[in-house]
Amino acid sequence: MSEKALSDVTILDFSHLLQGPFCTQLLADLGANVIKVERPGQGDLFRTMTFNNRWLGGRESPNFLAWNRNKRSIAVDLKSPEAKTILYRLAARADIVVQNFRPGVLARLGFGYEDFRKINPRIIYCSGSGYGESGPYLTRPGQDMLIQGLTGLAAATGRGDGPPVPVGSGFSDQVGAMNMVYAILAALYWRERSGRGQEIKVDLLTAMLAHQGQEMLMAMNFGKDFERPKSGIGHPGMDAPFGVYPTKDGWVTIAMSPYRTLVGVLGANELLVYDDPEALFEKRDEIWEKLAALTKAWSTADLIAAMLKADIWCGEVKTHLQAADDEQVAHMRAIGAYDHPKAGRVKVVAPAVKMSETPAAIERPAPLIGEHTIEVLREFGFDQAAIEAFIASGAIAAAEA
């Protein structure tokens, strides 16, 4: 195995669902030793959730498998008297704690930042939440689609004559995960210079606002919200021809491109009457309809070829399965796989980061609940008698059958 950039970093991962687990998976792909702390018998809540009631290998959740590779799982009852004995010993040697319980939950159980800092002053403790840890939304559920609605993203997406449209993936959670990663890596770098750990707090609300920086700046500084077009224009602030257009056999996207050049490709010089910056915005719905009537006469392949030849920024609209079979995706080796003891062969998206000296890699499948409990406890110095006592008391659970 190649050397990994984070191979000397140990993470105690108390997180569940998407935001925290995606963060720790990204770090695990870079070699971090991620120890996932789960509830005996239940585990991460994502183990019980799936799309379309479809399960891999009979009962393994695709949602869980997507965000938890390259980790080991220990099953510990956080409310048991022995939990502190176990987890404080792990924390004494850990570098990072990641958690996205509701604010205050872990601290009340004795696993907050102050608790771990007393044991290990170098600990970096990263908390993810929906709305921060105080304020009027403190008790609200912090779920991805709710955040998209609250931060303007859904209101800016979709056709103007239809409802607001959330993005078709867990976008808020994934943005939050990326914020966790960059804060953790910055904290690790600072600790190398200072010798001190610190507490990190990431919330989905401000993460989504920050990732709509240009839209927020425009709205706040001009005092006017974007108005969604009624056509396939791809952004509420853009003019024609920016958008999604139909073809005989599918759809294409056209980004920032000279309107005059596109009209030439489509052989519709009569539409040059709209070739004016003000008209291209104010009449963008009307222009889209006229352009769409022309693009419908083309096959996707022929239209893409003609537009690329004219140096128009364009692309096909593909489904997830079509994207997985894309020739550039194959060239980039962007799809990988791992073997899971229950789900079998699982196809996954490979790590997106390419590093010459310390490459990311998929080396472990997503774990079973408590699969590595005994292995990890032995690594941290618990003898067989202590482990057997923990099992007998119900404080921990070994690998599920």
Reported for the largest beta sheet, the result is: 7 strands, mixed
- Which architecture of the largest domain does the CATH hierarchy give at level 2? 3-Layer(aba) Sandwich
Radius of gyration from CA coordinates:
25 Å
Instruction: Give the total of beta strands.
Output: 12
- Run of helices and strands: EHEHEHEHHEHHEHHEEHHHHEHHEEHHE
Topology readout:
Layout: E1 10-13, H1 19-29, E2 33-38, H2 62-67, E3 71-76, H3 83-93, E4 96-99, H4 105-108, H5 113-119, E5 124-129, H6 144-150, H7 171-194, E6 198-203, H8 204-210, H9 213-222, E7 243-246, E8 251-254, H10 259-266, H11 277-282, H12 284-295, H13 300-309, E9 314-316, H14 320-324, H15 327-331, E10 335-340, E11 344-349, H16 373-379, H17 384-393, E12 396-397
Parallel strand pairs: 1-2, 1-4, 2-3, 4-5, 5-6
Antiparallel strand pairs: 3-12, 7-8, 8-9, 10-11
